[in-house]
Give the backbone structure.
Amino acid sequence: QVQLVESGGGLVQAGGSLRLSCAASESIFSINFMGWYRQPPGKQRELVATITRGGMLNYANSVKGRFTISRDNAKNTVYLQMNSLKPEDTAAYYCIANRPGMNYWGNGTLVTVSS
């Protein structure tokens, strides 16, 4: 079972930047895809960005051009660089790792963007 630990959340003003990290408990080389979801207050969890084992990227329309996902296989870590943050980006951000038939989730890290 893959364990995921997120870090890097916090409070930032609108227009600012944060970088989230997701450290996996084992090699991510064989994981199909990893990524980030978020859950704004009172809303459902939604996709933010994913990166496949082959390096294919996928972003939600709301973050395209502002967020960048990347992975470092040597460190078993996935990152989410978030720039030009908006108040509507405020949410709990969750890391996900996928193997065939199974999704693994971290406990989340909170991002708050003040206006």
About this structure: The longest strand covers residues 91-99. Residues 19 and 83 are 9 Å apart (CA to CA). The chain has a mean pLDDT of 95. The two ends are 39 Å apart (CA to CA).
